[in-house]
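anyone else get weird line breaks when pasting these?? whatever heres mine. first is seq + tokens for prot A
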Amino acid sequence: MQDEIRREIIIKASAKQVYDAIIDPKKIIKWFPDKVEGNIEVGNQPIFTFDHGRTSVYILAAKPYEYFAYRWVPGGPSIVEDLLSVPTTLIEFHIEEQGSQTKVTLTESGFASLPIDLAKKGIKNNSGGWEYMINRLKKFLETN
């Protein structure tokens, strides 16, 4: 069973701009969820709303301008509950400034520990989904 999805992209923006686009509720809705309910801060479980449903995310770690991580249930139905009590995957954004550009490495891992049907659906949906979303992040930052 494949355990992770990894995407890398170079964005013409500073590490601060990239980080802010990931954690600021007013900016993240420009490229990722349609709506955010709650605070995007370590230890919180905000709800992300997409066209296909709502899902809780558990904010695990935040190191400004370098790293951001959260847990969620991938590819599943709308999940709005305590994520510390259900199987999840880990989403990580590694942010590395390189001169006037920033390298973003996005990883979703932990599929092998999920129930098999959820893992297969998550890998199928999120492989293309992360490609699409990381390119939306690039477009948002490079055109605003």
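and prot B, same format (seq, then tokens)
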Amino acid sequence: MVESTLDKAKRISTLILDVDGVLTDGGIIIDERGKETKRFDVRDGHGIKMLMRAGVEVILLTGRQSMVVEHRAVDLGIKEVYQGVWNKLEVFLEILKRKAITPEEIAFVGDDFVDIPVLRRVGLAVAVSDAIEEVRQVAHYVTKNQGGRGAVREVCELILKAKGKWEEIMNRYELP
């Protein structure tokens, strides 16, 4: 029997996110002084906050190095950030060992070749809709939204609903 995406999402205790192309649209703006900026979607950020409030840890794992990512992580309360990582599988395996969790408890969202080794090993492999074809092929779930345009929010909602936490989260926003 093939396990459903919701069944996979129900077991998730940790969400690992690539940054460029997942939390951003992949664009990098460099001004005349060489200062880098990136665009983040506020709904993605809110989804991350809701997910963390529900007890799911969020980790950033990216191949590039940027102070912008550090600032965004602090803003969202994300404690673990791995930057400048070309061998994401190595870091993924270290995370598993250090946290004493299984791959089935981890969801990973990626968009490019360097993400494939991790996507092949996690419990819930997610590709953003504008990921390269090879990434979409190995994913258990492909988002409807593009990277940096609500894809992460979509994944957060999927996990919250699968875990039966959605109604509890929505009750927080009920008006008196």
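btw re prot B: The domain at 5-165 is CATH 3.40.50.1000 (Rossmann fold). The helical segments are 5-10, 42-53, 67-76, 88-99, 116-119, 133-138, 151-162, 166-171.
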